[in-house]
Structures are given as structure tokens and as C-alpha cells.
Amino acid sequence: MFDYHVHTEFSVDCKVPMVDSCRAAIAAGVTEIAFTDHVDSQPSDMGYGYYRAEDYFRSLESARAEFGDRLTVLAGAEVDFHTDTAADVERFMAQYGREYDFVIGSVHYGAGGAIIFPEVFGGRTLDDVFLPYFDQVEAAVATGWFDSIGHLDIPKRYAPRTHRTYDPLVYRDRLNEVFATMIEKGVAFEINTSGLRQAPKTSMPGPAVVRWYAEAGGKRITTGTDSHAAQTVGAGIAKTLDMLELCGIDAVASFRRRSLRLVPIADLRPALQRAQA
Ligand SMILES: [Zn+2]
Ligand SMILES: [Zn+2]
Known about the structure:
This protein is of the alpha/beta class. 39% of the residues lie in helices and 18% in strands. It has helices at 18-28, 53-67, 86-96, 126-143, 155-158, 172-185, 194-197, 207-215, 237-246, 265-276, and strands at 2-6, 32-39, 72-80, 102-106, 148-149, 188-192, 221-224, 251-256, 259-264. The strands form two sheets. The protein has a seven-stranded parallel beta sheet with strand order 1-2-3-4-5-6-7. A two-stranded antiparallel sheet has the order 8-9. The longest helix is centred in the middle third of the chain and has 18 residues, at 126-143. The model has no long low-confidence stretch (mean pLDDT 95). One zinc ion (ZN) is lined by residues 5, 7, 78, 226.
């Protein structure tokens, strides 16, 4: 099992040392973990300037030294993308991009530079939030800077009760355009299992969206828990592999030094069964 979205103390909203998550990953049957701390790009974000790349890589090396014989520990990042801050993101990627195994591009800010939290829905319709959000996602894909797109329909995570009517079918045509760009650029998206633990009660994105992507010819999917606590490392990944197979995806993406290899889900089953036994 691959958990390719895990935060550590190098993220502003997380206190967990890497070694704690490595122990939890091994216990949960995770075989590859990517530590993907936030690289925040919006100057107004509380995490802006928080990330320290050199210290991150030092900590990663010591986690590898301690757990490398039992767990593949990958250098990752979750880089916040918005067209307003693209120049800063480009600078970061030019400086550090080659140092990582795997880089997620995530959109956390939408129209007018507003962060996608519940407040953003005040006075807005779902379309007002989702359409500019998908524009940003597509722009992130088009840069070619990222290996995978984070939490593809994240606005649903923060939708307040008044807006709990999200139906991906409404955005199917727009999603298909985004998928075409992803496939052309060779950019994956992740199944982010945190949605299963939170209000949407479904992953981001959920099965319908995955099926449309598979029907469009897409094959590149990564799996991640978006853990900010050690106890959720690996959570929902086994279930996600079942879901992917049902939706017509028979492999998950693994990365080394930014290069992708598709691993058949069938090959992951024996380790999974051992972990669950
Ligand atoms: Zn994120
Ligand atoms: Zn995250």
C-alpha cells in the first residue's frame, strides 16, 4: 500500500515527527510513504514561509536510516498552486523540484484569492466555488510542474450544510476537459482518503469521477491519506484499491525521483492480506 500524502512537523498545521508516522505506516501495512509537507504560496496563508526545505531533507535522511529496511520513505511535497502565485511556485520548483521523488500540486485558494474554507461559500453558489477552482486545477496541470493533483474536488470537504448538494455529475463535462489535459501532460491525480473520515464521507474524488477518468483513458492515480496525525497513516487505502478496481483502474502510481511506474493492484494484494491478518 502506498500512502503518498502525509504531513509532518514541517507543515504549519501538523506536529507529528516523521519517525512516528513511519512506525504507524509499518503497523498499517503501508510499504511506501511520501512525506508531502505544505509548501504554501499565498502570502496571506498562515503557513507562508513556514516550510524549511533543508531541515526537511535532513529529517527525511534520518527516517530513511532508521526505517529504510522496512519502509520506502519518499521525499515529497504538497505545493500550493494558484495562477496569482505561479511565479513563486515556479521559482521553488526550479530550486528544489529535482530533490523530490514526488510532488503534489494542490489548489487551496479559489476566486478572488479566497481560501477554500466554509466561509468561502457565504453568498456564493456551488458553481461560484467549483468553476474557478477547476480552472485553477487545470492551470496547475498545464504547468507540468507536478506529478499528481491533490484532493481533486476539495471544495466538497468544506461545503457547509446549506451547500451539501455537490453532485460531480454537474461538472462532468468540465472534469473531462481537465482529464484531457492531465492525460496529455502525463499528470496523475490522487485519491485522497481524508474525505472518508470527514464530512463528505467519500474520498476526494469519489468513485463516479474515477470511472469517468478511466473511461477517458486515464491510468495515473496516486493514493494518499492526507494524514496530519500518525494514527490515520494508511487509513482507507485498502478500501480505495477496491474502489479503483471497481471503477476500471487496475494499477496505482509509484514514484522515484519524479519518475512514474504503474504497479498492478493485484501485486499489492499479498502484502495487504498479510497486514490485515
Ligand atoms: Zn491540501
Ligand atoms: Zn495535505
